[in-house]
Specification:
The complex is a heterodimer. By secondary structure, chain A is an all-alpha fold. Chain A has 12 helices and no strands. Chain B is mainly α. Chain B has a single domain (2-287), classed as ABC transporter involved in vitamin B12 uptake, BtuC, CATH 1.10.3470.10. Chain B is 82% helix and 0% strand. Chain B contains 13 helices and no strands. Chain B has helices at 2-8, 11-19, 21-46, 50-70, 74-92, 99-125, 131-137, 145-174, 176-181, 186-208, 213-227, 231-255, 267-287. Chain B is globular, with a radius of gyration of 19 Å. The chains are: A mainly alpha, B mainly alpha. At the A-B interface, helix 2, helix 4, helix 5, helix 10 and helix 12 of A face helix 4, helix 6, helix 7, helix 11 and helix 13 of B.
Chain lengths: 256, 288
Amino acid sequence: MSYLVEIWLAASLVALAAGAVGYVVVLRRAAFAAHALPMAAFPGAAASSLFGFSLPAGLAGFALGGAALLTLVQRSARRDSATGLLLAGFLALGALCLSLSGHYAGSVYGLLFGQVFALGPEDLPVLGLSGLCLPILLWLGLRPLVLSAMAPDLMRVQGGQPRLAELAFLALLALAAGFAVPVTGALLVFSLMLGPGATASRFCKRLETGLLFAMVIALGLVWVALGLTYMTNWPVGFFTGTGSALIYLLARLKTV
Amino acid sequence: MTMTRYMSVPFPDVLAFFQSGPVQVALVLSGAAAIICGTLGLFTVLRGQAFAGHALADVSSSGGAGGLLLGVSPLLGFLLSGAAGVGVLELLQSRRVAARDEAAGIMLSAGLGVTALLLHFCLTGHGANGAAQAVMFGEMFSAPPGTALWACGLAGLCLLTLVVIARPLLLASLDREMALVSGVPVRLLEVVFLLLMALGVTLAAMTVGAILATSLLIAPAAAALRLARGALMAALLAVALGLAACWGGVGLAYASYGWTPGRTWPASFFIVALLLLFYTLAALGRRT
């Protein structure tokens, strides 16, 4: 398989997972959590280069740990403050690991803003697994995941457990975010989630169509971004970030 | 050699610490940031605007990167883009409170996208290898001395404005309807506060870096709100905690030179670690 096809495939898989998760993020109003969890994966990547364990393990481990911590603080009275602090703590830990590993200056940019052209064929199986499994899991659990945030009391009456649904949601979010970090960078995973998700939630009445629509938008966004990157040699993150905002603005003009 | 000497006789190094030019700049810069962020943070936490504060800090990074690229003062870059961020937030402002996070998040993605591009130009065009690190994680030890003076001036201005609007803003933060009914210009206050917040996170971004700036804004204030009674006590406590974390962090970063051969630990790491420690202690102390 040629090098460019590999990158195209990897980025598409990341987009599928991010788009699907992003839709649920928007419906659950968890934008800040979605911004914070990729940051939890950031020290995972830094630590894996410092201590020499495998990158996917570091990313997934730290992201899931972040999800667990985030669940703990969700109950506190000022949960956005706690989320912000958790985020800063993880980033600072990552900065420490990078500076101790001696690749500080070189790696910061790649880990924060993505290094899509540094991907290799060994990354594809993990990305494939997350890119295909996460949307399916989200599709299956879509109603409880959304209901638990919109009407937790209703869910409790029906015998469901909103806290469990929240934990499941954060774990899925953590996995989607964690595996996307090497592709789009910790800071810009978020742009693949929020823009498509918010746009889809404005247009689609049915949950299932919304999920699919968000995935389609994310996929289109990544393809355009990759194409433009190939032509200009500018970073992918610039195109996904601004493109995501542009889509959202157009959707807002159209619907309001 | 120097390492062992340092370990055994710490005293001469304390003197050297305060005589070092970069350290003096760092102490002044971080002190100004701590004072202004501590007080602004109280309102940020009370109003539940931590995400907006974080988004403004992230967006200001594009100005920091632009400043590096064009060779203007990073402080000016941070400031201009922070103010632009406030404008965008206001434009995207929605009547639905729930959409507030959405708007902040979208602005944040766009801002970080621009930062990615500008830093890319810094890295490829200028060979400025540490550009990403400097903007995102702060590099106050290499800030020019003039920046510290500007930072103090801005912090003073910001503090003065905050003192003037503190009472009506507190009312508007705790009970918006009540403030509206009693004729407080709530919308105006909210915009002014966002501008002040942009200024505050700018100074914090110069200190601990753009993506860590929120911690300086939120942690001291959140800890102080748990411990103190009354707004004034909370403000003083928040400032004290912020100063302790910043100056302690600068000191520890200076001392860390001997810990791992040849590599200092980043000051921002120590500052954030201390801030988190204070916050956790305050949270635990309150509960028991």
